[in-house]
Write a structure and sequence with these properties.
It is globular and about 60 Å long. The protein is built from 12 helices and 10 strands. It has 2 domains: 213 residues, 2-enoyl-CoA Hydratase, Chain A, domain 1 (Alpha-Beta Complex); 44 residues, no CATH class. The strands form 2 sheets. It has a 7-stranded mixed β-sheet, with helices on both faces. It is of the alpha/beta class and 281 residues long.
């Protein structure tokens, strides 16, 4: 990704990099950067991912109208998105203090800003869980998703068994987890795991920026509200979700700094919609 400014590095060997795109859209790029190991999830690596996302969450403005961060792209440098933990070294994982603020999955789940996963390589087991913690997944043909918990004889602990049900349905979740089947990009798209597949890594990264820019140019409060409503609603019943939306609706307009400015902006965007519809064949 070109035209970006480096913001921070995390981890003892810069396992994770954070950049900001050089425009006014508030788009940040978090890169998992341990290319030699294809982003094997060591304890320092996991802590670095958590630290990067926690730093992004800390940028949340007290006034939700003024958030400078609007969207985050998560990507893996090199040939792997993230290929999970080295099972021969689980002692380091269990004794490494991966919980609370050092838990990368929790840091992504708790991030109030939309997170777009740009997957250009294998996302395996813990890396699969990292991918499904994102709000949107885009992929190149090199992407492949595989859950090896059953293969390794270890138990999932980062929501994958439940989250997959919501994303791909019960039988697809069983297919992916019980067999450790390698789910290539096109199949992932068919299953609904991935929202779009692009022809190569360059097209993927351009598309990730385009989607991030669409999100960043929408109303900042409503984007964050939608993320919260959908995430919370997925964990309850339909009736509970309806009550959640009603409660959110009752407070939304009180948070707007300038309702008239919001309506004027919406009116201008509606006219853009009219022109867009008129120009379509």
């Amino acid at each position: 990704m070109k035209d970006r400014t480096h913001i921070a590095s995390y981890g003892p060997n810069a396992e994770v990099l954070v950049d900001r795109l050089d425009d006014d859209d508030g788009i940040y790029v978090i890169t998992m950067n341990d290319t030699d190991s294809f982003n094997t999830m060591s304890v320092p690596w996991m802590k670095a991912v958590a630290e990067a996302f926690n730093a992004m969450s800390a940028r949340l403005d007290p006034d939700p109208n003024n958030d400078e961060v609007r969207a985050i792209i998560l990507r893996g440098e090199g040939r792997g998105f993230a290929i999970g933990l080295d099972i021969s070294n689980l002692d380091g994982y269990f004794s490494g203090g991966i919980s609370g603020v050092t838990d990368p999955w929790k840091a992504i789940w708790d991030c109030p800003f939309p997170v777009i996963g740009a997957v250009n390589g294998p996302a395996v087991t813990g890396g699969f869980e990292i991918a499904t913690a994102c709000d949107v997944l885009l992929a190149s043909p090199r992407a492949v998703f595989m859950d090896n918990h059953a293969k390794y004889g270890v138990h999932p602990g980062r929501r994958l068994s439940q989250r997959l049900i919501h994303i791909v349905g019960v039988n697809n979740a069983k297919f992916a987890t019980m067999s450790s089947f390698p789910i290539e990009a096109d199949l992932a798209h068919t299953m609904g795991l991935v929202q779009q597949v692009y022809k190569d890594s360059g097209a993927l990264e351009n598309a990730a920026i385009d989607v991030a820019r669409m999100m960043s140019r929408n109303h900042p409060i409503m984007v964050k509200r939608y993320k919260h409503l959908i995430d919370q609603g997925a964990m309850g019943t339909y009736a509970e979700g309806l009550a959640l939306e009603e409660a959110s609706d009752s407070t939304f307009y009180d948070e707007l700094t300038d309702l008239q400015a919001t309506l004027s902006d919406g009116g201008a965007k509606f006219q853009e919609l009219v022109a867009w519809v008129a120009a379509r064949d």
